[in-house]
Amino acid sequence: VYAAQDSGATVHCAGVNMSVTQPAADGTVTVSSEVLDHYEEGTWTAVFSDAGSSGNPLTMSSGKATGSYVRVGSLVTVCGYFSTDSIASATGAIYIQGLPFSNTNYYRSQAGVVIGDAAGLDITVTESATGYISANNAYISLRIWNVADGSAGMTAAEWSDNGSMTISCTYVTF
Q1: pTM of this structure
Q2: Measured CA distances, 34 to 25, 27, 77, 106, 131 (Å)
Q3: What is the mean pLDDT of residues 124-146?
Q4: Which of 91, 94, 128, 138 has the fewest beta carbons closer than 10 A?
Q5: Burial class (CB in 10 A: 0-12, 13-18, 19+), 48
Q6: Rounded (10°) CA dihedral 83, 85, 91, 96
Q7: Are 73 and 67 contacting, i.e. CB atoms less than 8 angstroms apart?
């Protein structure tokens, strides 16, 4: 530990070992680490596009393309309010690119995305917006769910020029 004259402190360590204070896992789980070795918070820039990478981007509204994230260990939580001014030349399924970290390469780690609010979508009252992050990806696949057909990819035809949504998701990265 280094204590500076301005009362600041700098701690250099290889992580916080939790194994001494945690009870042993029962025989049904596998423990891969008991060391908390990463903390980070910041912002990320969302790009709505008609492809998981590259593609035709929608025109984002000024000041409404930045989300927040917190990473603690291997868990990442992202959130934000995002809005577009135009679908531009986008066609097909809509994705949100630009997540700060890729999801793990394990299908058991796929993550559901909560859409807390959405506006400017061309969907019916029996449909709702949802999304997920698939294994080994740094983008969100937007979906439309309805009681009759289940879920399908949200398309540019279901998003309007002034579409918007509030999202939140926690996923695993390594």
Answers
A1: 0.84
A2: 11, 16, 20, 20, 31
A3: 96
A4: 91
A5: buried
A6: -20
A7: no
Three-point CA angle 99, 101, 105, nearest 5°? 115
Q: CA–CA separation, 146 vs 95, rounded Å?
A: 19
Which candidate, 133, 129, 131, 134, places its Cα nearest to that of 158? 129
Distance CA 156, CA 69 (A): 26
- Of 172, 173, 139, the closest CA to residue 57 belongs to 139
> CA dihedral in degrees (75, 169, 79, 95; nearest 10)?
120
Q: Using 50, 70 and 90 to split pLDDT, how confident is the model at 152?
A: very high
Instruction: Give CA–CA dist 154/148, Å, rounded.
Output: 16
Give ∠ CA 101-107-110 in degrees, rounded to 5.
Answer: 50
Q: Summarize pLDDT for 2-47 with one digit per residue, the tens.
A: 555 665 556 666 667 666 556 655 666 666 667 777 899 999 999 9
Yes or no: say if 100 and 44 are a contact pair by the CB < 8 Å rule: yes
Take residue 12 and report the two structure tokens written for it.
Answer: 């250099």
What number of other Cβ atoms are within 10 A of residue 63's Cβ?
Answer: 8
Q: What is the residue-wise DSSP string for 54-76? A: SS-B-EEPTT-SEEEEEEETTEE
